[in-house]
Amino acid sequence: MAPKRKRLSLRQKIVILNSLKSGEKPANIAKRHKINESSVRTIKRKENAIRKTFTECGSSSLTYSFNTRDVVMVKVERALVWWIEDLVHRRIPVDTRCIKEKATVFYEKFKCEKPSSSNMQNTKQFCASNGWLRCFLKRNSLHNVKITGESASADEEAAKIFPKTFSDTIKAHGYVADQIFNADETGLYWKKMPSRTYVAKQTKSVHGFKTAKERITLLLCSNASGDKLLKPLLVNKNLKPRALKGMDLKKLPVHWMANKKAWVTASLFKEWFEKCFVPEVRGYMISKNLEFKVLLLIDNAPGHPVIEHPNVKVLFLPPNTTSLLQPLDQGIIAALKTYYIKHSFRFILNKLESNSAINVISAWKDFNVKNCIDCIKIAVKDITKTTLSKCWKNLWQDVVLQEESDNEGLVTYAEIFELAKSIGGEGFDDMDIDDINELFDLYALDDAEIIHAIDNNNNNDLENAEDGEDEDAPPVSLSSKILREGLDKAADLENHFIDHDPNDERLSKFRRDFKNAMECYQDLYKEMHKEKSQRLLTDYFKN
């Protein structure tokens, strides 16, 4: 009886092709992979297309695709994911019409850029249909992104309803203001200057000068009483930049992490939650003589996964209500950025006053990520308890401390203007509020930047450090040990639900889907051990 038809991943097809190339018989390969011998011959016939797709897709998750997908479409969907994530990080709602339009734009650009790379160039033109959109969202696990059918905007109706849900949760669990936290991230262009200044205009052509679009992401977390602002998380593109060479990263005034986009991903958020949030909040509860039971309020950004913890309840804000309800977005983040600008200007002035031989551009060029961290540290200390508290007014008016004068922000602006005048020159002498607010805005990734990133993406989590390489970069490939550990954990997870789920129909579906999901890793593990056994046998005969 012929083996049951089995879907092979792209990586498995490469393994089969390599086995054929080494001289192994198709019948033996078919038996080992539990497929028909005709399937092996079909894979051999399509070798060029399979190897081309594998090479151009690199070692990303797409190499586990079951089909030899059009390379242009692979790039289109990667670019689209970057574009959607950028919108979400800038708090811009996403709708299906815009996704389809942008997909068509990317398709045309990638097709024109390298028309010979498409496997579908002789077929009909790509159409961003509803069916394609559903598959795209599923393929890329964009479940946490609120995708609307029409042009999206802030959901005022949901924002009116949620405070009642929030209040009921507080009463049900008996939380006090010290025990309720809000976490949110924001992008910071740490070396950006107002566009009217001569520094911004001239440094574009200065060799070795960091671009104004050099971005980091900060994750802030504070409680409703305003009594605690946790140590910020800073996500950089580079794990070990030269400015931090020789320093103990654990002793920085920020939790230092890195990935190629400098974004808070789901894995980074989970790591922050487990290694930073929980220990720091536990210590804070002890210092306040309070029970370690905490409510963490976050929005539904893609980088915020569902997390369970015995002492922490995670509550999600409704989609598209961040601008209306998120406490950190009601003034805390703006306060931090204002103070950061003030202290970065102070850095320039101190440089000029300590060395009359240098100019403003030279002083600003010397401003590195270590100086950036120093400014963040001071800016965090500048944020007052009252500022932290009053930003909860849209959710929990009762907890807000007596509001301080609204002149506080204006005083900080006035200090920035005084520093700018002392620095002097075009754009500094007559700096105004619009110039400062410009520094708050997050750049939109333009199509050219995204396409360049996709074309040059090597799929490493960490990129090169400033003018050099990061040290101790994690391996890209999965090792046999990591696979074995993952398979053991998967077995424990399956057994957990087998032991506890009384619903046979739901359990059966879970086990079926779970088995299909784990199959690619099981096959990869088997292949690794088979190749290892073959090598050991060969070595034995050599000896």
TrEMBL record:
Transmembrane segments: none annotated. It comes from Bactrocera dorsalis. This is Tigger transposable element-derived protein 1. Residues 64-146 form the HTH CENPB-type domain. The keyword DNA-binding applies. The keyword Nucleus applies. SUPFAM superfamilies: Homeodomain-like. PROSITE patterns: HTH_CENPB. It is found in: Nucleus. It holds the Pfam family CENP-B_N. GO terms for cellular component: nucleus. PANTHER family: TIGGER TRANSPOSABLE ELEMENT-DERIVED PROTEIN 1 (PTHR19303:SF26), TRANSPOSON (PTHR19303). One of its GO terms (molecular function) is DNA binding. It comes from the Eukaryota. Keywords: DNA-binding, Nucleus. InterPro entries: CenT-Element_Derived, DDE_SF_endonuclease_dom, Homeodomain-like_sf, HTH_CenpB_DNA-bd_dom, HTH_Psq, RNaseH_sf.
